[in-house]
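hiii so um. not sure if this is the right channel but i have a protein structure encoded as tokens and i wanna go backwards to a sequence. like what aa goes where. can anyone help
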């Protein structure tokens, strides 16, 4: 079966979250594999989150924040103020 092509969004909440998640991870000098070890989240899922292809659940948001050593509300605020943030219009 052919794999479905994944389209990375140009903006939106998921893209903003993923961008801020990646920045936080890189600030801690962590690889995606390091974040996997800290959170138990699959490395490919981490990649999908960072590219804005997947949306995090609230539990995932908390796991990511803990994994990169920041408070969840900081990650949310960074997402809200990201240049990629765009609230859905519908």
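sure thing!! here u go:
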């Amino acid at each position: 079966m052919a794999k479905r092509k994944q389209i990375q969004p140009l903006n939106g909440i998921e893209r903003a979250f993923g961008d801020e998640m990646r920045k936080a991870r890189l600030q801690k000098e962590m690889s995606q594999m390091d974040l996997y070890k800290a959170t138990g989240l699959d490395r490919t899922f981490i990649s999908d989150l960072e590219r804005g292809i997947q949306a995090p659940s609230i539990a995932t948001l908390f796991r990511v924040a803990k994994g990169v050593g920041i408070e969840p509300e900081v990650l949310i605020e960074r997402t809200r103020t990201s240049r990629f943030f765009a609230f859905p219009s519908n």
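oh and The CA atoms of residues 34 and 67 lie 9 Å apart.
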